[in-house]
Amino acid sequence: MTNIQVPDLEKEIGINLYSTTTPGVNGILRYRPADFVVKEISNYPYEENDVIDKNRKYLMVEVTKENWDTNHFLKAYSSALGISHKRITYAGTKDKKAVTVQKMSLYDVTKEQIENVHLKDISVRVLGRSQQPIGLGDLEGNEFQIVIRDIDLAETEAKDAAEKTTAEILKAGGVPNFFGIQRFGSRRPVTHHVGADLLAGDLEKAIMRYISEVYPDEPEETKEVRRYIAETGDLKGGVLKFPDYLGHEKALLNHLIARPGDFKGAFMILPKNLYTMFIHAYQSWLFNRIICERLKSGLTLNQAVVGDIVCYRAKDKTPDPARLEKVDEDNIDGINGLLKRKRAFITAPLFGSETPLADGIPGEIERKLIEETGFKPEDFKVPAFPEVASRGLRKEILLEVEPRVEIATDELIDGKTKMTLEFKLPKGSYATTVLREYMKTNPLKMS
């Protein structure tokens, strides 16, 4: 393992090491949106026909947008079409500060309607029609083309660092499948702490932490109002001070002002994907810690040992967490053969009320870290808030990737070098887990 210091912000989310030993190139991401290009990989079926009939109610399109987040696009585009945003569905959300290409389906919309709508930095290409709408998860993964700028190294030095890092990644079969800072909140990684409060059954503490706990990298105006609420408990005064862009905090405060003490009700006015994210973030923090401890113990991520639990490859070639098998003396050689052929994957727990744990050294690591949290499986049923309960599952610990890297003089920043990386990742994984191995810098420079 490397001795390169990991930023405190990453330690906060359970990541305390790099898997490569080559010093990073530093630099910054997203100097402009076009520096971060994401294209979905999807074979969702459709027919090349743009005529509506009873069997093909859904118009399939490919949307290319620059500097638009998915939700903002849906609101603006559905308004321009004169339809409800619920008639537009997609396979995955995408970041705002990027160029993103993704498939979407539109219910009972014609090609002519699409051709009559024009929004800045958005292009929509009609593909055909489908019997069913595309939905969340209906993709295999994403292709990335990402430019790192503001690199102080000379081209030869940057090229040497990139080649060494790439060689280490390829030898290991990929990088640790960490959950990135986006899972926890880039400037305010509070979600896993809120999740711990919910697991402990303290909904009041959870909601006040979310509203009033201050983090050093957030704007001064939000620090000020959070401190005010923490020090005074004045919810009515606090809601007036919160900026409008913090709509979730304001919604929580307004609910508690109208219904004092109804902490569960306040959480449930948030979007479901947000209030369930708190428990998921806590599971993700623990998952990151387990991967780090595994690597520190000398175990690898691409070779199983007795006691490991592996999952098998699904029909779409992605890991299937429902198909698990424990590694023992009798099957270890066969399973390691499957790992080499990418037909099996070593897993770690996203711990919940029904998550199986490994045996042997991997199991010792898992149980030790889980015991340190003080939580037991039944705590993940969350009696005080069962709507966020999680049975848990196991997830692959190695993110298989084969990056291609190009070094050049930066045409936008004089005297600097740029690095362009291209790679593919399966759905549900984070590009920053690859980029951090090359940059080795503050994750805020990657957000």
TrEMBL record:
Catalysed reactions, as listed in the record: uridine(13) in tRNA = pseudouridine(13) in tRNA
Gene Ontology annotations of biological process type: tRNA pseudouridine synthesis
Pfam family, one: TruD
Organism: Methanimicrococcus blatticola
Ranges for domain TRUD: 174-399
Keyword entries, A-Z: Isomerase, tRNA processing
Biological role stated in the UniProt entry: Could be responsible for synthesis of pseudouridine from uracil-13 in transfer RNAs.
Name of protein: Probable tRNA pseudouridine synthase D
